[in-house]
Amino acid sequence: LHLQFAPSATGKIEERFEKTRDLIAHLMKVEGEKQLDAGRGPWSQVVFDEIKSIPDDITRLGWLGLLEHCRSLEQTLPGAKWSRKSRELLVARGEADVVPVLLKWLSLGPTPGQLPGAVSPIEDSAYQKGLVWVLALSRERDVAIALADFGLACLRKIPMLGAVSQKIALACAQALGEMDCPEAVAQLTRLRACQRNLLGN
After folding, report:
1. Using CA atoms in the order 71, 61, 55, 131, what is the torsion angle rounded to 10 degrees?
2. What angle do CA 65, 54, 70 make, to 5 degrees?
3. Helix (H) or strand (E) holding 45
4. What distance lies between CA 25 and its chain's CA centroid?
5. Summary count for the chain: helices (H), strands (E)
6. How many CA atoms lie within 13 A of 177 on its CB side?
7. Does position 101 have pLDDT exceeding 90, yes or no?
8. Is 2:25 a contact under the CB 8 Å cutoff?
9. For residues 31 and 174, which has the higher predicted lDDT (pLDDT)?
10. Helices marked H in 72-140 — which ranges?
């Protein structure tokens, strides 16, 4: 029931549904179970907990800055200014250091630790979309494969609800289309074939 009252891809939810969702969330609580921080979904909670554990203040703030930049991408496609800022952040933190960490976060899947019927909430997809586009600046084969894998996980169908996250699956496909990497073409074909099959069913 809680999943069915999730906000739309734009984060909008009717007030009457929001109250119902909050009541269901209260009933779902289990004594001693760790609760998500405000504004966090299961994916972003894992990511921010990892960042919180970084002892060095400058490093920790750098990661927080990168994630907030990811979250700032509201358009379907990033503009030149956003992409330029992404490149600057990658260079400042060191692409060789940043990309493996971002890939590790993608490998969590869109809804880590959740039941099979869980969709990716807006609290997570807002960060995931930007992260996908930051990774698209890379030319690495492993990045293209990881983007396709994440897109496929987002396309998984949930009965009565649709895909886990059609919005992020689309971002993965668009990002692969923009990557300057031969492997991206093969992975985009793979992702689109899966998308066609799902739509056909």
Report:
1. 30
2. 25
3. helix 42-52
4. 22
5. 9, 2
6. 10
7. yes
8. yes
9. 174
10. 80-93, 95-106, 122-135
